[in-house]
Recover the amino acids of this structure.
């Protein structure tokens, strides 16, 4: 993969702060008494480090060297084992909880999705938990993104102007070009993404094929029902 510009990594936590989503994943870990956790697509590790505690092992996996460098340097970073790569790069030591946060599941293309689920299942005994969220395609988030236009803000790298070009390539994949203009440097950085919007039925089918049984699918971080208006689908599945 083409790695992120380091300035974009520096901005990540401000754009994706600790909040109710992280609270929910911490609660899932506590409710299931997780002793070994795998965070797939851990990014800067903002959530990962908060899962660490005595008697619990944490592995954070991400394909971005720049993200992992930031994660290792953050407070609490030495409490986590950081691994560069995808789920298949994680140690084969068994885990009882795997998470994919920040809509990471949508960044994994169809060609790699079954392999990712299989790699997680291979590191988990019967009864282990996989929890992740994915944007609800019925809410059509890409329409709001396309209508946003330019926005401006201050940052650690000075004033920024940001905008997004959105292309819905087909019924399931949305391609984005997120552009950040660093005003003081007179430079624009473009981050390209392809997000796969899988339906609930697709997710349940794929999880079943990988050896998981879906236990719950909620439309929010507080057990809201999944409706067409719900922005996310929070999935909790158990290894069979």
């Amino acid at each position: 993969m083409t790695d992120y510009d380091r300035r974009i990594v520096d901005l990540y936590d401000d754009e994706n702060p600790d909040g109710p989503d992280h609270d929910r994943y911490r609660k899932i870990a506590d409710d299931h008494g997780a002793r070994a956790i795998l965070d797939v697509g851990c990014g800067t590790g903002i959530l990962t480090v908060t899962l660490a505690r005595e008697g619990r092992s944490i592995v954070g996996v991400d394909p971005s060297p720049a993200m992992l460098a930031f994660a290792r340097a953050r407070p609490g970073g030495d409490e986590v084992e950081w691994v560069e790569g995808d789920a298949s790069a994680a140690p084969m030591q068994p885990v009882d909880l795997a998470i994919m946060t920040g809509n990471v599941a949508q960044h994994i293309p169809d060609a790699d999705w079954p392999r990712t689920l299989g790699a997680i299942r291979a590191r988990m005994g019967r009864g282990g938990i996989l929890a992740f969220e994915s944007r609800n395609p019925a809410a059509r988030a890409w329409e709001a993104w396309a209508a946003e236009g330019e926005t401006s803000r201050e940052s650690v790298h000075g004033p920024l102007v940001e905008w997004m070009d959105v292309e819905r390539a087909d019924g399931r994949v949305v391609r984005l070009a997120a552009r950040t203009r660093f005003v003081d440097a007179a430079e624009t950085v473009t981050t390209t993404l392809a997000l796969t919007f899988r339906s609930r039925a697709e997710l349940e089918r794929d999880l079943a094929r990988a050896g998981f049984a879906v236990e719950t699918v909620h439309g929010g971080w507080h057990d809201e029902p999944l409706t067409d208006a719900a922005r996310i689908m929070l999935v909790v599945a158990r290894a069979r």
Observations:
- The two ends are 33 Å apart (CA to CA).
- The chain has a mean pLDDT of 96.
